[in-house]
């Protein structure tokens, strides 16, 4: 039986239901206590089931669609030099004609941190230890997501001249924007280390785990970028709507305020915000010297895989129509 996109989607939904039954009996240490709000406990187990189902679906594709997967990998490797050129172009264009050039990658997060610190550090000084590190550790993660997805949205439309002339795997364009933002994040990380040293924060071996939340955020951002770049071809107003959404998400993610100031009923709801988990993961290993538990990793991985699968599915399913709407 041929594995089509429709059958794969049905299989994933069916596996989610199958996994749900045994997973609801997992130990409290993984999914939380049974005594908590049922409206929050059930979504936790469902999300765990969905993550397992998506992972199973990916494994099934790798087994049954080996030739297709090899073909896609081969195509990507053939055009990897184009990806490098696009990333290099974006990075050069970002600071072209500016006096300080690449130094803005370092100065921008520092200046933003100084402004927000001056405004909010007095308000939260008794609730947040080392506010500059707290702020910057969340800011660089969220900034990477915001920048990569916003720039990726127009990546297909802005590459119209190339797409009309030659064959190029179209996913290269949003992917290049995400890699370009990742490169910018690496320079911003230098600013984070500088603030870490100046403020006298304690270095811990858990700092070595910082690449993990960055990888989670990268995969999640890539999936959302694929989805947005595809939707923007058919719905141009998405650019304006997304800027409003990013502003809203900025305030819904505890970047410059501690979660402790929120009402008790609101705190669990924040768990449905993927960026909260990625920011919290980064702070756990960098600021609090703690290793996130299994559930934290499952949630981060689940959001990332779900975004990547949905984004890739929509993008690959609609890419043949792009040329008609440019």
Shape: globular
The fraction of residues assigned to DSSP E strands is under 5%
Number of domains: 2
Largest sheet: none
Strand runs, count: 0
Share of residues in helices: over 70%
Structural class: mainly alpha
Provide the residue-averaged pLDDT: 81
Query: Helices and strands, in N-to-C order?
Result: HHHHHHHHHHHHHHH
Q: DSSP helix count? A: 15
Question: Which ranges are low-confidence, i.e. pLDDT below 50, for 5 or more consecutive residues?
Answer: none
* Rg of Cα set: 21 Å
- CA(first)-CA(last) distance: 37 Å
Please tell me about this protein's structure.
It is a single chain. The model has no long low-confidence stretch (mean pLDDT 81). Helix 5 (80-94) packs across helix 10 (172-198), helix 6 packs across helix 7 and helix 7 (131-152) runs parallel beside helix 11. The protein has helices at residues 5-23, 28-31, 38-64, 66-78, 80-94, 104-124, 131-152, 155-158, 160-165, 172-198, 211-234, 238-252, 267-270, 274-286, 294-318. The chain is an all-alpha fold and 326 residues long. The protein has 2 domains: 1-78, no CATH class; 81-325, no CATH class. The protein is built from 15 helices and no strands. It starts with a helix and ends in an 8-residue tail after the last helix.
């Amino acid at each position: 039986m041929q594995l089509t996109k429709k059958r794969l989607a049905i299989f994933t939904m069916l596996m989610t239901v199958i996994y749900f039954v045994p997973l609801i009996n997992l130990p409290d240490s993984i999914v939380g206590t049974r005594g908590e709000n049922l409206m929050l406990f059930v979504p936790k187990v469902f999300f765990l089931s969905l993550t397992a189902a998506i992972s199973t679906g990916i494994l099934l594709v790798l087994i049954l669609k080996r030739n297709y997967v090899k073909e896609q990998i081969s195509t990507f490797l053939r055009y990897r030099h184009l990806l490098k050129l696009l990333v290099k172009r974006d990075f050069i264009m970002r600071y072209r004609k500016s006096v300080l050039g690449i130094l803005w990658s370092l100065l921008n997060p520092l200046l933003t941190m100084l402004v927000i610190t001056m405004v909010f550090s007095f308000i939260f000084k008794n609730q947040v230890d080392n506010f500059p590190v707290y702020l910057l550790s969340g800011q660089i993660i969220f900034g990477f997501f915001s920048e990569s997805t916003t720039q990726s949205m127009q990546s297909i439309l802005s590459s119209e001249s190339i797409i009309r002339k030659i064959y190029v795997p179209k996913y290269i364009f949003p992917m290049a924007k995400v890699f370009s933002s990742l490169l910018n994040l690496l320079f911003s990380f230098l600013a984070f280390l500088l603030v870490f040293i100046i403020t006298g924060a304690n270095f811990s071996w858990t700092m070595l785990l910082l690449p993990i939340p960055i990888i989670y955020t990268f995969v999640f951002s890539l999936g959302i970028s694929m989805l947005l770049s595809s939707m923007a071809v058919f719905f141009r107003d998405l650019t304006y709507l997304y800027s409003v959404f990013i502003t809203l998400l900025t305030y819904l993610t505890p970047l410059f305020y501690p979660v402790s100031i929120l009402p008790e009923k609101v705190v669990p709801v924040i768990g449905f915000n993927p960026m909260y988990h990625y920011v919290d993961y980064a702070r756990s290993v960098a600021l609090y010297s703690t290793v996130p538990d299994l559930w934290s990793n499952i949630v981060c991985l689940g959001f990332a895989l779900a975004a990547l699968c949905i984004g890739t599915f929509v993008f690959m399913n609609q890419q043949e129509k792009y040329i008609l709407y440019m």
